[in-house]
Amino acid sequence: MTLTIALAGTAALFALAALAVVLAGAAAATRIVYGACTIVTAVSLVAAAAHLLNAAAPLSLTLPLGVPWLGAHFRLDALSAFFLIVVDLGALCASVFALGYAEHETAPQRVLPFYPAFLAAMTLVVLADDAYTFLFGWEFMSLTSWALVVSHHRVPENVRAGYVYLIMASFGTLALLLGFGLLAGPGGLYSFEAMRGAPPSATLGALALVLALIGAGSKAGIVPLHVWLPLAHPAAPSHVSALMSGVMTKVAVYGFMRIVFDLAGAPAWWWSIMVLALAGATTVMGVLYALMQHDLKRLLAYHTVENIGIIFIGLGLALAFKAHGLLFTAALALTAALFHVLNHSLFKSLLFFGAGAVLTATGERDMEHLGGLIHRMPQTAFVFLVGCAAIAALPPLNGFASEWLTFQAILLSPQLPSWGLRILVPAVGALLALAAALAAACFVKAYGVTFLGRPRTPAAQRAAETDRYSLAAMILLAVLCLIAGILPGLFIDALAPVNAALIGARMPAQIGTQWLAIVPIAASRSSYDGLLVFLFMVMSGALAAAAIHRLASDRLRRAPAWDCGYPDLSPATQYTAMSFAQPIRRVFGTALFHARETVEMPPPGDTRPARLKVEMRDPIWDFIYAPLAAGIGAAADRLNRLQFLTIRQFLSLVFSALVILLLVLAIWS
Amino acid sequence: MIRDLIIQCVQMLLVLALAPLFTGFVRKVKARLLYRQGAPLIQPYRDLARLMRKDVVLAESASWLFRVIPYLVFAATWVAAALVPTFRTDLLFSWSADLIAITALLGSARFFLALAGLDVGTSFGGIGSSREVMIASLAEPAMIMIVFTLALIAGSTQLSTMAEFMASPAVGLRVSLGLALIAVVMVALAENGRIPVDNPATHLELTMVHEAMVLEYSGRHLALIELSAALKLILYFSVIACLFAPWHLAPAGAALPALAVGIAAYIGKLAVGGFLLALFETSIAKMRVFRVPEFLGAALMLGLLATLLRFVSESF
User: Fold this and answer.
1) Contact between A444 and B133 using a beta-carbon 8 Å cutoff
2) Which residues of A fall within a CB distance of 8 Å from B101?
3) What is the pTM of this model?
4) Is the domain of A378 the same as that of A406?
5) Is residue A95 one of the residues assigned to a domain?
6) Do A595 and A662 fall into the same domain?
7) Closest among A335, A320, A324, A393 to A519, alpha carbons compared
8) ipTM of the predicted structure?
9) Could you tell me if A593 and A497 lie in one domain?
C-alpha cells in the first residue's frame, strides 16, 4: 500500500511537470504547481513514516515500464522508507516555502516544470529495486537539477556552475554504472534482488565500494569530488538549493549505503579505511572552505560538504564494526550517521530558506553587503539563529545529538582488532572535533555579519520581513530541529528497523529510559538528555531574569555605542566576514590555502587609499582539476588534427586500426 | 529522592555562591604575590551587587538578542557547572549530560557571547569575537581529545563514573593521564582567558579577546556575564579536581558528615588550585595573540597523543 502511494505520488509529480509546461505562462501556475507538490509530498510522507514506524515488512512491485520484458522493479524496505521520509519532508517544506518565495521568481517557466520532475526523480532513486531504474532515476535527478541550476542562465557564474556540474554528474553516473556492472557479474543480474543473492568476492566488492564512493560520493560532495557542489547549489533558486543540499546529497548517501551495506556482500575490514580517511578530510576541508567564504549561500553549500563528511564518518565506523562482527556498535555508528542525515536535511533546508528570504528582501547574497537584518526581519532572524545553533552542534539542538552519538561510536573503537583502524579512528575523531569547533566559528560569522551589527548597504537597510508561507516552512523546520534535539530517543527507536535490516542488530530501545534520555550502551557508560538540559537552561535563565528584574533593577536606557570612547558612525568600520575569519585564515589557511595578505600603505601626502589584499588558492582545484583539465585540453588539441586529414589518410588510419585490432585479437587468444 | 534533589540544589547554589569568592581569592593572591594589598575577598560580590542595581545603558544599534544573550550564557554555564561533581558523585541529574555535553554547553555559551560581540556593530566587539572563536576552534577539539583519553581510561564519559574510577586504585599512574593533565590545564587557561592567553584584568591590552567582546555590556547584563565567567573558572577547576584529585568526594548515599568532609575538601582543593593559578599567572608573561594557536595546538597534540596511546594499548 505504502509503495503504491509513493509510486502514485511519483507519477503525479511527473504529471505535474508536464502540466507545468502547459501552464507555464499562467499567473496562477506557481501556486498550482507548488500547492500540488505540497499535497503530494505530504501524503507520501505520512505513508512512508507509517511504514517505518510500524517496522512493516518490505514491499515490492514490478511495473511493466522501462526495458521491455524486464520491467521496472520497486521495493520499499526500511532503508528506502527512511530516505523517502527525508526526501518527502525536505520536498514538503521546500514546496511550502516556494509558495511564497517563488512569487519573486523572474522566469517561472524555467523552474516550474523541472521542480516536480526533480522531486519525482529523487523518489524514484530511493524506491528503485533494479540497476536500470536506479540509474535512470539518478540520471534524471542530475539532469533536472542541472536545469534548475542554470535556470538563471544569464548570470555567467551560473552557466559555469552548470557546466562543471554536468561533467561531474556524468562522471559520477559512469562510476555507478561500472559499479553495478561489477555487482551484476557475468550473468548480468540486474535486479537488486539477484545481486543480493550472489554477493561478489571481497576484491570485486572493494572495487564496487570504490566506484560507489566515486559515483555517490561525487553527488554527495566528498572531497576531492566536491568541486561542483559549492558552485551549483547556490546558483539554483533558494528552495532548490535547499533541496539539493538538504535532500539530493542524502539520496547520494542512500545510493552509497544501498550498494555498500546491502549489495556488496560482507565487508572486509580494510574497506572502512578508505571511507574514514576521505570522510575525515571532507569534514575539515568543508568547514575550512566555508570559513573563507563571504557569499552566504556558498558558505552553506560548503557546510554541506562538512556534514556529508560527518555522515560518512558514521558510515565508515559502521562498516568497520560490521566487518569485525561488533554488530551492536555498528548499529550505534549507523544510527549516528542516519540521524545526522535527517538532522542535516532539517537544518540545512532551514538555513537555505533563510538565505533565500534574505536574498528576496535585499537582493544580496554577499554577506559584506548585509548586516543588521535582525531589526528588519526579526522572525527570519530568529529561525535562522535556531538553524545556526543546530548546525554548529550546540546542545540542546539536534546537530549535537547526532554528533554526540558519533563521538560515542568513536569511543568504542578501541575494541577494533585491526591496527590500521586503531590509529586512524582517533585521528578522525580529532578531525571531527576540530570541524565541530570550526563550524561554530563559521556560523558566528555567518549570523553575526548577516543579521547582527549595523546595515552595511541601503539594500540591507530597506529589507522587510519575508512572506508568511516562507516563514511557516522555516518555523516548521526550526521546531523539528528542536524536537529532534530534545527527544532524540524517539528518532533512534524509529531507526531500529533500518539497523536490523542492514546490520542485523539494533541499538537498545530508548523509549523506556527515565526522562527520555538517550543511553547508547549502558547508563554507567554514557547518557545524554536533551530534554532535561533544555528544561534546565530555560528554568535557570528564567529564574535569573525574574530574580534580577524583581530584586535588582529592570531599568534600561538607550545611548550611542561605547566602543571604548571612539565609536565610528560609519557601518564600514564594523567587522566584515573576511576580517572576522582573518585569525582563522592565518592559523589554518596559510598552509592549506596558501593565503597571503599584502598591505599597501601609501606614504603620507599621497592621496591613494591604503589597500589590504588577500590572496587564496584552492589546493584541490590547483593540484587535481587544473592539471586534469589541462591534460584533457592538450589531448583534445592533439586529436583535433584528425579532423583535418585527407580522405586517403583517413582510410589508411581506419585500415591500420583494423589490422592492429585483429593482430591484438590473434595474439590474445 | 528528596534528599538527592536537595543535594543537587546545594550543588547548584554552592558553585554559584563560591564562584565570585574564588575569583576574588585568585585576585587577592595575585596582588599579594606582587606585594600589593589587593581588594578584599568579597570585592567581586560587591561589584556584582553594584552592577545589578545600575541601569543598563544599551547601545542604540543593539537588538533583542543582545539583551537575551547574558541570560542564555548564564543559564548554559550554570547548568554545566551544576552537573560537575564537586563534593559528591552521582548527583541526581548528573547523568543528563556527560563531559562531552558539558563541553558543548560551554561551547553554546561562547557561541552566543561571540554573537553579542558582533551585535552592536563596533570594531572592538568584532575583534574580540573573531579572536575568541579562533582560540575556541583549537581549545574545543583539544578538550574533546582530553575527554576521549579520560573516557577511554575510565570506560565512561559520565563525570560521576569517571570520578569514581579515578578515585579507585585501578587507575594507577599512566602516561596518558599525565599528558591529559597538562593539556587540560592549557585548555583551561585559554578557555578562561587567563595569562598567558588573555588578560582578565583589562580590555585595553593588545590581546583584546574576552573583555573586548563584552565591552558594550553594562549594568545587570555585565553582572551576569562576569558571574558566568566566574562560574566557568570554577567549573574548570571542579572538572580538573574531580578527575585528577578525586579525594574525599562523597559517594552516592553518603551521610551528612561525609558530605561535610566533601565540601571542606572541595574548598581546600579550590584554595590550592587558585593559589597555583595565581602563582602561574604572576610568573609568566602574556603571549602575542598569534602565539596562542601554537600553545593550543600543543594542547591538541598532547590530547591526540594521549588518545592514540589509549587506542594502541590499554596499559598506557
Assistant:
1) yes
2) 395, 400, 404, 528, 533
3) 0.95
4) yes
5) no
6) no
7) A335
8) 0.96
9) no
